[in-house]
Design goal:
alpha/beta; Spore Coat Polysaccharide Biosynthesis Protein SpsA, Chain A; Jelly Rolls; 3 domains; six-stranded antiparallel beta sheet; five-stranded mixed β-barrel; 30 strands
């Protein structure tokens, strides 16, 4: 490996709607154990563990996911160099610019490895070998390197990279052309040609060189990112970009903003068991399947079913006499599709967005920095939630204008503050929080606190919260 260490920059700003309904805006696929026991972002950081080759990673993520990302990194034993929060998504070119600006402040010659947080790589040794080749091309040939995946089929869902002349660094080529997602006939011609590779969306480059090229090809992006970084601020364990400056930044990908417009672009072809897990069909392809070609997870029963992806996170899922389908059941949604049409889940997601349905953004179980809550029943002027507070977790000091709450402790110990008075509640004990009273819930114990909350009132929305104090810096 090249002598200089490389900083992994993990891009985790996506919403993962192509794997809806399991992946949703507030809990996207990179934070879920979609393809293994660990979440996808945990798998990504595990590939680039700090050591002789890599520094601690930098994470670029949506501010709404910040506590989930931080908790998952902690659970994986990873202490990031920084977690940078985007107020809005602006694609990969601005995210890379923000990372590069921070890195050159520490080291003008810093190398950064830009990695999506939601890809699967089954051959990690091949991945590390490709990174070594790319690092040599960056240092010796002053190239900006992307990774081209040897195509396994004429895929129309990926962009392609055509390799050009071989460079001084063995295993690396100049980029002859970037190609958009092709139609079937064009994709087949690429496979026959043999010089085309799938565009993986991963890059290794000098942070300084990226900023220089971005300043030449997209100076408006660089200027907005520089302002957003300069006027940003630290917030607990996070760095918040200035919201106004970053929101005003044009949205563009690294490919369009820089790589297609620079003479320094290079590609390292590699086979490493890669998948962007861009659809239920793609996930079915990489999963271990039974003799009938089925993948099953959860409470699933089948009879005469083949070539299918079947997953239940709630009710019993029973399927009979089906071929090549995707059946996914969560606690609040059932998705049924032919595998070949799995990409069209975006049509359903778009309809949900236009109808402002909650199912597009959140599950019934919603995670917070202090724990989670799940709505288990709701009706006219009432709502019932199951609340779990982590040991040491503390909800904000708050009040509601439109609802009262009744809390029943099911497991653990609750410390309750109401109108300035404190009390401890044990299992099977309860308390009433009248409308308009200032209150707080804490878990002082060493085990999770489970309680049932019954809300009653004229309006029960989550936006009926007035916060006075909050451990986690929420407004």
């Amino acid at each position: 490996m090249a002598e200089k260490r490389i900083t992994p920059v993990i891009l985790s700003g996506g919403s993962g709607t192509r794997l809806w309904p399991v992946s949703r805006a507030l809990f996207p696929k990179q934070l879920l154990p979609i393809a293994g026991d660990q979440s996808m972002i945990q798998q990504t950081v595990a590939r680039v563990r700090a050591g002789a080759v890599f520094t601690d990673p930098m994470i670029i993520c949506n501010e709404e996911h910040r506590f989930l990302v931080a908790e998952q990194l902690r659970a994986a034993g990873v202490e990031p160099m920084a977690i940078v929060l985007e107020p809005v998504g602006r694609n990969t070119a601005p995210a890379a610019a923000v990372a590069a600006l921070r890195l050159v402040q520490q080291d003008e010659d810093a190398l950064m490895l830009l990695l999506p947080s939601d890809h699967v790589i089954r051959d990690e040794e091949a991945f590390l070998d490709a990174v070594e080749v790319a690092a040599r091309a960056v240092l010796d040939d002053h190239r900006m390197v992307t990774f081209g995946i040897h195509p396994e089929r004429p895929e129309t869902g990926f962009g392609y990279i055509q390799k050009g002349e071989a460079l001084q660094t063995a295993g690396c080529h100049a980029v002859a052309a970037f190609r958009e997602k092709p139609d079937q006939a064009t994709a087949e011609s690429y496979i026959r040609d043999g010089s085309y590779y799938w565009n993986s969306g991963m890059f290794l480059m000098s942070a300084r060189q990226y900023l220089e090229e971005l300043g030449r090809t997209a100076p408006d992006i660089l200027a907005a990112c520089r302002t957003a970084a300069d006027e940003g601020r630290n917030d607990l364990d996070f760095f918040r970009l200035d919201a106004g400056a970053f929101t005003a930044c044009p949205s563009d990908s690294i490919d369009y903003a820089v790589m297609e417009r620079t003479s320094a672009a290079a590609v390292v072809p590699v086979s490493m068991g890669w998948s962007d897990v861009g659809s239920w069909h793609a996930l079915w392809e990489i999963c271990e399947r039974d003799a009938d070609g089925n993948f099953q997870q959860g409470d699933v029963l089948t009879a005469r079913v083949s070539g299918s992806y079947l997953r239940s996170e709630g009710p019993l899922l029973a399927a009979i006499g089906l071929e090549d389908v995707v059946l996914v059941a969560t606690k609040d949604v059932v998705l049924a599709a032919k595998r070949e049409h799995a990409q069209d889940v975006k049509l359903i997601v778009d309809e949900l967005k236009s109808s402002q349905r909650e199912e597009v953004s959140s599950h019934r179980e919603v995670f917070r920095p202090w724990g989670s809550y799940e709505t288990i029943d709701a009706g006219y002027r009432f709502q019932v939630k199951r609340i779990v507070v982590k040991p040491g977790g503390c909800l904000s000091l708050q009040m509601h204008h439109h609802r009262a709450e009744h809390w029943v402790v099911v497991q653990g110990v609750a410390k309750v503050t109401c109108d300035g008075k404190e009390m401890l509640l044990q299992e099977n004990e309860s308390t009433f929080i009248p409308l308009g009273k200032t209150h707080r819930l804490e878990n002082p114990g060493k085990l999770p606190l489970h309680l049932i909350e019954v809300q009653s009132g004229a309006y029960l929305g989550e936006d009926d919260i007035v916060r006075f104090e909050d451990t986690y810096g929420r407004s």
